[in-house]
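Summary for the lay section of the report: proteins are chains of building blocks that fold into shapes. Here we show the chain for Calcineurin B homologous protein 3 and then a coded description of the shape we predicted for it.
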Amino acid sequence: MGVSVAYSHVVGVWRSFFPTVSLEQIINLHKRFKQLSGNEDTISRENLDSIPALATNPIRKQIIEAFFDKRNQRQDEVGSFHEIGFEQFLMVMSHFRPPTLKTTEEEREVMRREKLRFLFNMHDTDSDGTITLDEYRKVVEELLSKSGAIGLEAAKAIADAAMLEVASTNVPHMEPDEFYEGITFEHFEQILKGLEMESRMHIRFLDVNTTTMHCGK
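The coded shape description reads as follows.
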């Protein structure tokens, strides 16, 4: 299948990050991108918000915002895009690729750190490098209260207790009058240290099989 000059550029950029990804895989992702965008060159938040499989997801807002977060584009910029093109869409999708048998331990560690950073960014909504109590509380409230099994006040109390536990673990010698500013990325890594992340992040609501997105040498 032939591709345009602009599309060939995207393929080149994508393969510079992931040498073993096939042209067929990129084309399949491009087809899904076009479906979501209504055959336009860019995708908006409204395009993703209309996906039926996301309608009942308790963190739908955070998932959608992750696609437009400049921090997830492997750049040092902060802020968000109003719309994203296919190349930016691919860069976000790269965070969901699983390891393969050829993936080295060093590459696995890089993948794990990238996935953790992606999840951290979803919680750090003001991009200040810290997940504050308010940010953490909002996520927990949405996860628990929208399930219908627990009220908002109870969810808030659970979030506050969880953050207090995190504070006591990360800063064990805090004085009673000290204020815990929040979870840094280093703290976040420690909290999830025992969790196998490399193959656990999926994106099935886009009807894209990320297990076919290989990486490595």
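Put simply, here is one thing we learned. The longest strand covers residues 42-44.
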